[in-house]
Amino acid sequence: MRALLLTLLLGFYTSVMAEVTDDTGRNTEIPTTELEFVESINQFSKAQIIEQFGEPAVMDDLRLADTGEVIASIWRYHFINTNPDGEYYETTELDFLGERVVTVVFINNGGQETITIEPPDLPLEDEPAPEFLL
Length: 134
Known about the structure:
The chain folds into 2 domains: 1-30; 32-110, Beta-lactamase Inhibitory Protein, Chain:B, domain 1. The chain is 25% helix and 22% strand. It contains 3 helices and 4 strands, in the order H-H-H-E-E-E-E. It has helices spanning 2-20, 34-40, 46-53; strands spanning 58-63, 70-78, 91-97, 100-107. The protein has a 4-stranded antiparallel β-sheet, with no helix packed on it. The model is unreliable at 1-20 (pLDDT under 50).
C-alpha cells in the first residue's frame, strides 16, 4: 500500500514539475510569492513576463538623448505578488537594464505617495548653527 501511495505521489510531483519547467529544467512559470519572485525574476525576459502577467499598468522607458535607444525601463504591475502572510502588494515595480530585471520594489501605496520633508528650524541668533547648515 505504501509503495502504491509513494508511486502515485511521485507521479503527481513529476507531472507538476513537467508543467512548469522547460527542456533545460529551468522554471517557465514566474512564482508570485515575494521571496521566490525576487530570487527568480531576473531569469525571465520582458516577453516572458508579459506572457504571464500581461502588459504592465505603467511602463516608462529611459532613453539616450542622442540616439533614442532604450537603456532602462520601469514597469509597474498591480496585485501580482504576495507577502509571507499571503496578502497582495498593491504594486510591484520592476526596473530593467536592457532585457533583464535588476531591481524589484514592492509598494503598498500604488507608487503615488508624496513625501514632504520639513526644513529644520533655523537657529536663534545666539545659538550656533548646526553643522549641516554651515
